[in-house]
């Protein structure tokens, strides 16, 4: 099957330098800042607060808080007291939308699991994804959080990059899971079959 997926054009006028920040809604800014500091060790760095939205001029008081997630990555939250209570997309399963953070290795992942559970938080995993292992839990706002430790080899990452265009094309045509990288979740499938 020939690939129709385009590759990035090196002469493209937009030159990205990474993610500046990713922003989500929270129920309580102070509780959220304290939770991410206590549970994940994120440093609270900055807050913006306005009564009017700078981009639209609309009256909608907010507190916008920024947390350092490491390596120049910033996680931000908005508390919006004048809006309806926050919910989640009920048409999307709870496991789909999530925030994933890298930890250095499997030992760090297991230590993180022990720490998070020590905070009284239910943790799922580790789950084996072939090239990384993950644990999952929810923050006080209902956002799913993932911690992931990379375990893949250079050859595995190269193979995944090689088959990615074919997989996307096949998915686009059939809406059935392509089997080009079926090995990724073999261990997870075996673990689920045993339970």
Spans of at least 5 consecutive residues whose pLDDT stays below 50 are none
Question: Share of helix among residues?
Answer: 25-40%
SSE succession: EHEEEEHEEEHH
Question: What is the mean predicted local confidence, pLDDT?
Answer: 93
Q: Strand content of the residues, in percent?
A: 25-35%
Number of helices: 4
Strand order across the biggest sheet?
1-4-3-2
CA-CA gap between termini: 37 Å
Biggest sheet features: 4 strands, mixed
The best one-word shape is globular
Backbone CA Rg: 20 Å
Structural category: alpha/beta
Count every beta strand, where a strand is a DSSP E run of 2 or more residues: 8
Structure, explained:
By secondary structure, the chain is an alpha/beta fold. Helices cover 28% and strands 29% of the residues. It contains 4 helices and 8 strands. It has helices at 29-40, 106-118, 154-174, 186-194; strands at residues 22-26, 43-52, 59-68, 74-79, 98-103, 124-128, 132-138, 144-150. The protein has a 4-stranded mixed sheet. Strand 6 (124-128) and strand 7 (132-138) form a beta hairpin. The longest helix is centred in the C-terminal third of the chain and has 21 residues, at 154-174. The chain is globular. The two termini are 37 Å apart.
